[in-house]
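Quick one, tokens below. Sequence please?
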């Protein structure tokens, strides 16, 4: 792995641990020589992780749609900035640039981004590791929902292993480095095995 895409809230959230762990993740990326790929904002947890990477002399690569958001301010100190036209282009570029994905706490956009890379992994578009940094139990309900969907027959049991979930950035990155994609299974239960 050379580059990790980090999905994160464009707001800092109300729990001070969110900010602290965004900074810890940034420092951990730098200590391992990993480059950051993210949405390019200076705001919220997005900005906190980028600042930690840049303060540690690491590389931070942003991808931002030109003129799409009034409130999302482009980080001025990035190593690289890729300007794109649409959100679809933004997400595709971030995926292409990255060797793995981590979601910090965030809102609907973060959920949408992480589920897109998980579903792409499920159908074999990529075989890159995907992690959730479960700060103060933030992603526990989401993991329970995935387990519930598995029990309900919508996600093959082996594919629940597509998502790595840890509360410590170092442990999560260790697991991502050692990641082996789950054995490819037929995701469509009504088709012949």
């Amino acid at each position: 792995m050379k580059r990790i895409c980090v999905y994160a809230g464009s707001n800092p959230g109300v729990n001070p641990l969110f900010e602290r762990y965004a900074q810890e993740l940034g420092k951990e990326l730098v200590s391992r020589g990993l480059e950051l790929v993210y949405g390019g904002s200076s705001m919220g947890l997005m900005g906190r992780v980028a600042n930690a990477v840049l303060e540690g002399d690491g590389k931070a690569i942003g991808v931002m749609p030109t003129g799409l958001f009034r409130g999302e301010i482009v980080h001025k100190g990035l190593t690289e900035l890729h300007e794109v036209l649409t959100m679809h282009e933004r997400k595709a570029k971030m995926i292409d640039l990255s060797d793995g994905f981590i979601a910090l706490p965030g809102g609907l956009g973060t959920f949408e981004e992480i589920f897109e890379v998980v579903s792409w992994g499920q159908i074999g578009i990529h075989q890159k590791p995907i992690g959730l940094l479960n700060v103060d139990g933030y992603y526990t309900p989401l993991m329970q929902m995935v387990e519930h969907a598995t029990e309900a027959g919508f996600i093959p049991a082996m594919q629940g292993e597509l998502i790595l979930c840890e509360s410590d950035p170092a442990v999560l990155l260790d697991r991502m480095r050692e990641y082996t994609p789950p054995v490819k299974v037929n995701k469509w239960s009504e088709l012949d095995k």
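The chain has one domain: 3-177. The chain is about 40% helix and 15% strand.
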